[in-house]
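Quick question: who can interpret this fold?

. . .
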Amino acid sequence: MGTSENKTQPTDVTPESFVAAVEHPVRRADGETLLEVFAEVTGLKPRMWGPSIIGYGRYHYEYESGREGEFLMTGFSPRKAKIVVYVMPGYTDRSAILDRLGKHKLGKSCLYINKLADVDMDVLKELIAAGFEEMKTLYPNWKAS
């Protein structure tokens, strides 16, 4: 069972070219801003994961079932409907930060934002940093690319 690969794999597309091709002007501008924010917070260069996720860092996971693979440590996607921010440990212990963030919705490890103007950017940076630091602790053998 450990041999099946994660469907979302790193690609050779540059994150900058992906963001430049985003049709919606606000979503494209927000994507450009997030490229800078994630680079600042993580100190890493971005990499495309699949057709639409911009990731920073990667970690190796292994489930009890034996399935294993690699995935991004943190990242985002400027999707058509909303911006999605990926904080891989999830958001369950982040209520104090989320209460200060601004307008958003949550998934398990996804934060959905209509536009960056709806949130406090300093709080968003704090949230990204908290998740990234937790991932580095959970996966000490993580890699930068």
